[in-house]
Specification:
InterPro entries: DAP_epimerase_AS, DAP_epimerase_DapF
Number of domains: 2
Strand content: 35-45%
Number of helices: 4
Family: Belongs to the diaminopimelate epimerase family.
Keywords: Amino-acid biosynthesis, Cytoplasm, Isomerase, Lysine biosynthesis
Enzyme class: isomerase
Number of strands: 20
Order of helices and strands: EEHEEEHEEEEEEEHEEEHEEEEE
CATH architecture of the largest domain: Roll
Structural class: mainly beta
Catalytic activity: (2S,6S)-2,6-diaminopimelate = meso-2,6-diaminopimelate
Shape: globular
CATH topology of the largest domain: Diaminopimelate Epimerase, Chain A, domain 1
Radius of gyration: 19 Å
């Protein structure tokens, strides 16, 4: 089989890491098992999501296709949108770009700092059938869901929000007091979530300061999840736990969220990083690093 060597970028937003392909001139098609092989941190490049930048059918700056590291395709990824926004703004010399996603059109803005990007994530969806849930709940601020014994559940009554993908947020006193790697997969695939869900543990530790730990649908434990941060900020406002401007503290670092009262849009602002440039032989899926980015990493190693 003839080799097809394609360049890629390894990027991250607060540690939420991506392999980014530019497929605007030459289409890229990888099977689910090929994506999973590249996403494997032990044997492949290693990433949370694979991002393919394509031409937009709507004529905006680009279309962003998102696959999780297990090969499944998802509609939204806030941190990836910030990373792709940075690339497109630097490429075009603009301070705002529009990115088409399966969740709609998103606008990215140059924020305060050379690597800091704000993304308008749009309006959260809050009705039970928009999450979606398998049964009707009049109030999605705290649905009837628990894990563990009925009289002494481990986790219970999460808030649910859709920020382009479904999220369940459990308010706890200590995000480290629970084995999210164990309960995350059970809750992600709970029958109440027909499309699965991202599972978060959240704790308000100071005024408008929230600590967050996330089990990401199709990706597992992650250092950061932008849509989870947005969903948590929205849930906090709805439950009078925080104001409309909050800082969400993820394992990978802080991210600023504003749920704007004027139009209901959620704005997310945080750092982006280019880790390195590389190339993959698509015939064999062998890869190598070719050039350092913003953050030096060990040659040939997955981050």
């Amino acid at each position: 089989m003839a080799s097809d060597v394609r360049p890629f970028l390894k990027m991250n937003g607060l540690g939420n890491d991506f392999v980014v392909w530019d497929a605007r001139q030459k289409p890229l098609q990888l099977a689910k098992d090929q994506i999973a092989q590249l996403g494997d941190r032990g044997h492949g490049i290693g990433f949370d999501q694979m991002i393919t930048v394509e031409r937009s059918a709507y004529g905006v700056d680009a279309f962003m296709r998102i696959h999780n590291c297990d090969g499944s395709q998802v509609d939204a990824c806030g941190n990836a949108t910030r990373c792709i926004g940075r690339l497109l703004m630097e490429e075009a010399g603009k301070d705002m770009v529009t990115i088409e996603t399966n969740a709609g059109l998103l606008h990215a803005f140059d924020a305060d700092g050379p690597r800091t990007v704000t993304v308008d994530m749009g309006v959260p969806r809050l009705e039970w059938d928009q999450i979606p849930l398998a049964e009707e709940f009049a109030d999605t601020r705290a649905i009837e869901l628990q894990i563990g014994p009925i009289d002494e559940p481990i986790l219970h009554t999460p808030a649910v929000v859709n920020m382009g993908n479904p999220h369940a947020i459990f308010w706890v006193d200590d995000v480290e007091a629970y084995d999210l790697a164990r309960v995350g997969p059970l809750l992600e695939h709970h029958p109440i979530f027909p499309e699965g869900a991202n599972i978060s543990l959240a704790h308000v530790f100071d005024e408008n300061q929230i600590r967050l730990k996330v089990w990401e649908r199709g990706a597992g434990l992650t250092l950061a999840c932008g849509t989870a941060a947005c969903a948590t900020a929205v849930a906090a406002v709805r439950d009078n736990k925080a104001g409309r401007k909050t800082t969400i503290h993820l394992p990978g670092g802080p991210i600023d969220i504003e749920w704007r009262e004027s139009d209901g849009h959620v704005l997310m602002t945080g750092l982006t990083e280019i880790e390195f440039e590389g190339e993959v032989d698509l015939a064999t899926l062998s890869w190598r690093r070719t050039e350092d980015g913003d953050v030096p990493v060990e040659a040939g190693a997955a981050s």
